[in-house]
Amino acid sequence: MRLNPRPWFSPLYIADRGVRLALSLAVAVAIPVGVLFVFQYRALASLESTSAVVLRQLSTDTVDNAARTIESVLKEPHIKVLLALPQARVEPLDPGFVAPVLADGLQASPFVEAFYVWTRPAAGDPLSGRWLTYDAQSARLQTTVAADRFRDEPTTRRALLGKLQQLASLKRAIVAFSDTIDGRPHYVQAQLRWSSPARDELTSLVAFAVDAERLRSEFLPALLATRLQSLQQPSGFPPLRLALEDGDGRLVVSGHGPGDTFLDTRSFPLVFFDKELLEFAAPYEARRETWQLRTTYGANDILHVVSASTQPQKMLLGLVGVLMSIGVFLVIRAAAREVRLAELKSNFVASVSHDLKTPLALIQLFAETLELGRVRNPDRAHEYYRIINLEARKLTRLIENILDFSRMEAGLRPYTRQPEDIGAIVDRVVDMMAPQFTQGKFSVQVHRDDPLPAVMADVLAVERAVENLLTNALKYSGDAKQIDIAVVAADQQVQVRISDHGIGIPRQELRRIFRKFYRVQQELGGGPQGTGLGLAIVEHTMRGHGGSVTVDSTPGVGSQFTLHFPIDGTLTDEDVRNETDSGDRRRTADAAGPA
C-alpha cells in the first residue's frame, strides 16, 4: 500500500486508465445527447411561440366575430322588417303584404316579442287609427285572411302610442327607448313616417318590442354558446371562453371564474339598428347602454397557458435526461471498475512476482554461500541462517495470504471458533515477529488489560489479521520506529488497537484501503510494495467473527487500526459462514470501484 494524497484533477489521476475510459465514454455520450436535448428544447420553445400566436389570434378573431354577430343579429328586425315595409304598404295598411314580412321577422329574430303597426285615422280604412299587434300568437292563427292576424291591444296602445307620438316631435326617423310592459322591462324601437319631408305630421309607424330579461337570459347566452361550439379549439390547451357584461357591469354570459385573466375586450352599444345611425336615433344620443364582450383561457395569460401545455414534455424530457444520465453513469462506472480491477490485478501479479523474487534471491544467495563453505565465522553463518529463515517466513506468509484470500473469494474459508484469550494471541504474534522488529530497529510497546474476557475466535485467522496489521505498521512507519499495541475490554468488546507514528492515510483513501488489490500510493514508482490483500483479509476475518475493523489516521501523524471482537459470542458458526460468503461476494463487484 503506497501513499499519494493526489487531487482528482491532477495529471496523475487523469492518467488512470479507468478514469480516462470514464471521461471518454462520458464525452462520447454527452455531446450527442446534449445536442439532442438542445434541439428538443429549441423545438419546444418554437412550439410555445407558435402556440402563443395561434391562441392570441384565436382570441382576437373570436371576440371580433362574436361582437359583429351580436350587432348583426340585433339590427336584423330593423333592416328586414321596419325598413322592408314601405310607407305605401302601410298607408293604407296592406295586410297581405305586411303580415308575411312580420311573420318572417319573428322567425328570424326570436328575441322580438311583438311587432306593432299604427296609421292615423283615415276614412274608408277600417284598420287605420288602431294599434295593431303581430306576435307569435298571431303567427299561429289558422286563418287565410291576413287582416285577422292583427290584434288590437289597448294595454300596449296606452303604454307606447302616446310616448311614440310625443317622441315624433324630435323629427327623428328612428326612436328607441326602454319601457315597462305588463310589469317587465322591454326595449322598444319604432320607424316613424311623416306626411312630408318637413316631418310636421306623423302619419304611421312600425315598431317592435324586445323582452329585456329574455334577451339577457335566453337569446344572447344561446347565441354565444352556438358560436363557441362551432369554434375549432386547438387541442392541448384550455378552451377559450366568452363573458358578456351589460352597461351596468352585470354578467349576461358568465364565461369565466374568479381570478380569470381577460385577454381581449370589445365594447358595443346595445341598439337594434346600425350603430352608425346613432346620431339619427332618439333618445339614444342622450343615454345608451354599452356592453362588453371578453375572452379568457382561465386564470393564466397566454404565455402561461402555452408554457403549461409544454410542461409535460419538458418534464418528460428532463426525466429522460436524468434516467439517461443515471444509465450512462452506471455503465461508465462499471466499465471504469473493470478497467481499474484489471489494472489492479496486473499490479498484483507484478507485486507478487517482486515479493516472491526478492526473498527467493536472498535465500538462494545465502544458501549458496553456506553450501560453498565460504563462511568461516560461526556467528556469520548463524546470521545467514537467520536471514534465510526470516525470508522463508516472508514467503510463507505471502503464500498463506494469497491462499486465504482465494478461499475467501470462493466462500470456502470456514472459521473454527472457540473461546480464546485475544491478549495471548497478540503476544504470540509479537513474539513471532520479534526478529523483524529487531531488524528494523522498532520499539514495540504492548499494553493489555488483565484479565480479559474470552471471545469466540479462530486462532489462526486472528493471528493472521494481527500479523497483517503489524506488517503494515512496519512498512508505513517511515522514520518513526515506534509501534503501540493495546488490548482492552470496552463496550462489550475486546479491542486490539495497533498504532504507528508514520506517514498516515489521507481521508479520501480511508474507505478504499480494505478493497482487494488496493494500495495507497506514496509517489509514482516509489514506496513500500505489497499485494494489496492484507487489509482485505483483515476486514473479511473480522466480519467472519461478527466484529469489525476501524481506522483513524492523519497524514504525517500516523494511523491506528482497531479490531473489534464481540464478547457475547452469540453468532453461530453457520451464521458466520453465511455472513462471510455473502458479504465477500457483495464486495467483489465494487472492489476496484472509484470512491
Would you write up a description of this structure?
This protein has 595 residues and is α+β, with helices and mostly antiparallel strands. 49% of the residues lie in helices and 19% in strands. The protein has helices at 11-14, 17-74, 76-82, 87-90, 95-108, 136-140, 154-167, 212-229, 302-371, 378-409, 422-432, 434-439, 459-476, 534-544, 573-589; strands at 112-119, 132-135, 151-152, 174-181, 184-194, 202-211, 241-245, 251-253, 262-269, 281-282, 290-296, 418-420, 443-448, 455-457, 482-490, 493-500, 548-554, 558-566. Strands 3-2-1-6-5-4-10 form a 7-stranded mixed beta sheet, sandwiched between helices. A hairpin with a 3-residue loop joins strand 17 and strand 18. Helix 3 packs antiparallel against helix 5 (95-108) and helix 14 (534-544) runs antiparallel to helix 15. The longest helix is centred in the middle third of the chain and has 70 residues, at 302-371. The model is unreliable at 1-13, 522-528 and 575-595 (pLDDT under 50).
